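RETRY 2/3 - previous attempt timed out on the joint model. Re-submitting the same 989-residue input unchanged.
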Amino acid sequence: MNLLPYTIYLSFAGALLSLVAGRRSAAAARGVALLTAVACWGITLYAACGFTPSNQMIQLVDVTWISQLGIHYHLAADGISLTLVVLTGLAATAGILFSWNIAERTGEFFAFYLALIGGVYGVFLSADAFLFFVFYEIAIVPKYFLIANWGSTNRLYGAMKLALYSFAGSALVLAGLLWIYAAGHASGFSLWELAQAAAGLSHPQQVVIFAFLFTGFAVLAGMFPFHTWAPTGHVAAPTGASMLLAGVVMKLGAYGCLRVALPLVPAGLEFWQPVIAWLALAGILYAGLVALVQDDFKFVIGYSSVSHMGFVLLGLALANPAAMAGAVLQMFSHGVIAGLLFAVVGRMVYERTHTRQLAELTRLPLHRLMPFAAVVFVLAGLASMGMPGFSGFPAELTILVGAWQVSKVWALAAALGVLIAAAFTLRAIQVAFFGQAGAAAPAAGPVHLYAPITWPERTGAILLLAATLLVGLRPDLLLNWIIPSLQSPMMQAVWIGGTR
Amino acid sequence: MNYGYLTLARALLPEMTLVAGALLVLAYDLIRGRRHTLPERRAAALLLGAVALAAALYDSLAVGALGPVYGNTLMLDPLAVATRAGVLGLALLTLGVAAGARLPRHPAEYVAIILFANTGFTLMGAAHQLLVAFVALELASLSLYILAGFNKDSRESAEAALKYFLFGGMATAFLLFGFSLIYGVTGELDFSRIALALAQTGMTPLLALALVMVLVAFGFKAAAAPFHLWAPDAYQGAPTPSAALIASASKLAGFTLFLRLLWPGLGALAGQVATAGNTGGWLTLVALLAGASLLLGNLAALAQANLRRLLAYSAIAHTGVMLLGVIAAETAGAGPLFYYLATYGVATAGAFGVIAVLEVNGGCQRITDLAGLDRRSPLLTGCLAVFILSLAGIPPLAGFAGKFFIFAAALQVGGVAGPAGWLTLLAIALSAVALYYYLIVLKQALVAAPAPERAGRIRVPTATAITLVAAAAIIVGLGLFPSLILGLF
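RETRY 2/3 succeeded.
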């Protein structure tokens, strides 16, 4: 457990090192990046092995940082953060495997990549709001350069949109945090101190502060109507970066809502609960319907991400332990599945066929040309639509059960979202991979023989598939970590404030 | 009382060192210069100048915080010591920038005038009396006008100097008028006795006029909107090291001077901005200047295609935050403001250092001139990224910490219930807008491909390389350990 902070330091050190190694050769930079990511993932798994679930945060580091403002360098972990750092390690490793073919400015690519990962680990482990915010912002800038430099369609636009949305969101968060600190006369920036300071503020102030904090974080979680950066950003990003964006960066927003917005101002949740729930439902349904009619394969996956993150936001808004445990499980599940889907679309298909238009893909018998990609995508698609046996099923089921306890209408609307997810996923599978399945012979035109799927791609895909299967079959592995953490003293306030 | 000449001489040791250094630079060039080439003369002048600055820096630290000197003429408190050290450090950076910039035709004179300007700056940091403050400010300003127009062959440089001089001269007139009114009402020159006198009289119409005069002058000198018009032209036309000095050290010294004049001196006339409603003090005026600067600086910067003008508008926006720091100094003291000024100065001077090197290698006016910088010089790109991201306020760089401290302090003035709180929320919102234009700069440097005629690798002169790396290290170091500066106050 005490090794967990080294995930942060190792990632940043790896970023510098791969920058240096990239001057020598691309292979060296790749090696450094993979080693760093695997080492960090190893640390998280090692910590997971020695983890005993409890309702207390495990303190990792706590030293005074800026004494004048009572700011501490305070890292701590509980079951929720552990779930997410394990996800980060997995997504980072898989993402590097799927970025193996980056040939241009490889060192810089992996430097930005690992800097982003370092920021993500930092966010998941921070227990001081200032520190949390610092890591949160550190994660923004590398995203811009990853997309702008190595992206595809409309990359400059997508990158700038993503950066500005993220930064606008974090400005809201900063305003909210400073408001609590100044108006509540907090003695420091630890989450606990801020929660106490916020409790002393008037109810209208708490309601406004909650809106600042929650909206700020929810922008990054892709909450409707602030989700529009997500599809454009995901589509523009290079495969490895899309995997990270959908896999872990959107979770930063959801985690911020869960760890900062809800416990600091639980009274705000009580006030805003219906609004958030309806926005989350609107996201689930609207993004699902939009995904149903996309022409671009990657946009289908981009919108499906928004739809699935809607479940996370719904789970958070319901403010009961079952739904929230489901939300955390869904964060993990979506991180793995979205990574897998983007890997197939971006790396396996697009970089070989050089098209993402479904109308063109349907003319290619991809299920015979790329059987491995087809199998992986079908499995990932099944997981994505919530098939039992894969991680999406227990996650969404738990959220639906939680929703049913609060409002039957919400539960039914969310269940409709599951149906829509099945529809757009099946359509994508059918059109993209089995377009020619019914035809007697391949249509006219030469059939290309594509480069075989490489070993990094196979390894990455198998890792992610194994993770979604494992959690799908044994969701209790993660739920046993998550549920005790939801009973922590900070979260108790959410249950009291949020459910009546 | 402490009217001893010996104490005075000791307190003024840094200034004397600087003047002696300036004369030495001139004398050496006069005597030995004609046997050397221009680059050699520049190297000698810069070396002597750097030694003089380093000696003055040592002096100011060795003298330390003596407290009031020669009655109350000078005040050597921690703020004064920090300001002296800060401006001298920034001037050292400027010399490093000059080492990589275009050759001036008279390098020794150039360095000597930088030293004279710094004499003014250090004196501004310690001045505690109207006349000393005025003389120090004018010494610094006159030197800066010359520095802005030093490139005699360039029309832009001449235009920059003329605009700067005309606006500055006007501001001086306003300032002098304001000072004379204050003296006329109170009959006192030194700040603490003015404060005592004002505590008796309170606000009068004549004093209100004096406050407006002083703040108009302050607005001009600090390039706060709506008195900012000279800044974009001066930043664009002035020789690059001069622009770096104008943007960094002169801002630090100016804000220290006015902070001292406003809070301890005219504190009785401050009024309040904690809650809504005009109580008729100078805080309202400062808040207006801050709001106008924040809005105009950030929005106008969005439309700039010229890198130097962009930095100028960004400087105006930063002035808005600094003015917020002046407001917050009531509760938080000078610490957050000084931190912001010092780190902003380092980042801006560093950015101008990168521009200076590029100017020698094919020119650098438009933002697109940065295109492909990462393939031309990774060192410059890395340093530029640190400076620009610090200006944008991205952690863990110093620019973020500076903004954070000022915002936290300003919100503590009265929560979000009054102008101070509204301004803070405005500043936070605009910092998201600002990211756009800073990213545009970095996009050219890190993403765009180099123009074919400017694809060659850039060789950065050693002195400039050391300066830039040191500046970047300061930005990162102070960003990670802000207590090093905050703990001084």
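Chain B touches chain A through 33 residues (CB under 8 Å). Closing ticket.
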